[in-house]
Amino acid sequence: MLAKSCGPNAIVTPIFPEVHGHQPRNFRGWFPPWREVRSREDLRKNLVEFRRREKFYNHIPARFARARLPREIWDSYLKICVERNPWDKTLSHFHMFRHADWHQRYDPTLTLDKYLERGIFCHNARFYCDAHGRVIVDRVLRYDQLDADLSALYDELGMKYEGLPNAKAGIRTDKRSYREVFTDAQRERIQKEFSHEIALFNWKF
User: CA 60, 64, 70, 74 torsion: positive or negative?
Assistant: First the structure.
């Protein structure tokens, strides 16, 4: 959405699946791969990205974006993320693994119980928190009220809001609410797994 209003020098990352008209630019480059490293996995991932010159990418964790941007940019720009009710997000994530054949770990035989047993959870906190779990972006918008939150944001920025984009649509064919899908045991499993996010935003089942 914002990419349509960005200038030629802005950083715009590729997105997948591709969206018609989206034009990535300025996302490649070298960077110090040791900054914000907190584990061997961090270092391994950073070195792979360094060799590929993938300085910025879709869904980059906030702490890595902070490490790779000039400090004056990070400090002065408005930094925004979106978070979703963990039960709703988990159900949507399950459907992506089961129905989205473009996904690397696509498995049409996957059941909800198997998904939960494997622990394939979509933790978003790393996208807006530092390594200690502290929020380091300026705002975290709520997915369940995203249309209203974005409309207010666009008003604040003096931009025209044209409604939500239709990205990754059609993956979740079962439109039932998560409240109708999860058993008590499944609900509690997700509550335990996402305790940090629930504490940060007071999510309710």
Answer: positive
